[in-house]
Automatic annotation (TrEMBL):
Gene3D superfamilies: MOB kinase activator (1.20.140.30)
Protein's recorded name: MOB3B kinase
Keywords: Kinase, Transferase
UniProt GO molecular function: kinase activity
Keyword check for Nucleotide-binding: no
Annotated organism of origin: Polyodon spathula
SUPFAM superfamilies tied to this protein: Mob1/phocein
Length: 209
């Protein structure tokens, strides 16, 4: 028996605290504009396109933070079923295995159980988006020159969360009656990533139907 999305996607199940945009800032306004476009029924492909006159880095920053929050929430709903026993390897089916590397503790790509990989992934992204030198929140502070490259890595790693959830835990999403919500979030993420060339086609292969 399914339960309502409100019951499924609640703040208590969030895997990490949400990063929010400060009211009155340009990014807050961009976030509102992006959400309004989606909620108005505009085609998702059109909604992800950079609005005329807006800065690309701001547009990417707003979406990367938003996707982190949403995907965080999606994984939070199934994380109790994603254990070292059920998912001893972080994978997307038998053909795709994801190894963790962070240049800190894991200097070489290392095979890890999915929940451990997910924790490291979310920790790593959280550090990036809360770093004022990478995601500045104050007006007038420029983005770093390698900002888009950093975002590509974040988007790539967030996509792997979708891959794992879809291939290994989608039965739980269906039981919760949340598949429509997850599918919409995935389409939004997919169109944004491909529209702005933030994700390599090779990474998309596990979910190509």
């Amino acid at each position: 028996m399914s339960i309502t999305l409100k019951q499924v996607f609640n703040k208590d199940k969030t895997f990490r605290p949400k990063r929010k945009f400060e009211p009155g800032t340009q990014r807050f306004e961009l976030h509102k504009k992006a959400q309004a476009s989606l909620n108005s029924g505009v085609d998702i492909k059109a909604a992800v396109q950079l609005p005329h006159g807006e800065d690309l880095n701001d547009w990417v920053a707003v979406h990367v933070v938003d996707f982190f929050n949403r995907i965080n929430l999606i994984y939070g709903t199934i994380c109790e079923f994603c254990t070292e026993k059920s998912c001893p390897i972080m994978s997307g089916g038998p053909r795709y295995e994801y190894r963790w590397q962070d240049d800190l503790k894991y200097k070489k790509p290392t095979a890890l159980p999915a929940p451990q990989y997910m924790n490291l992934l979310m920790d790593w992204i959280e550090v990036q988006i809360n770093n004022e030198e990478i995601f500045p929140t104050s007006i007038g502070i420029p983005f770093p020159k390698n900002f888009i490259q950093i975002c590509k890595k974040i988007v790539c790693r967030l996509f792997r969360v979708f891959v794992h959830v879809y291939i290994h835990h989608f039965d739980r999403i269906i039981v919760m009656g949340a598949e429509a919500h997850v599918n919409t979030c995935y389409k939004h993420f997919y169109y944004f990533g491909t529209e702005l060339n933030l994700i390599d086609r090779k990474e998309l292969e596990p979910l190509v139907s």
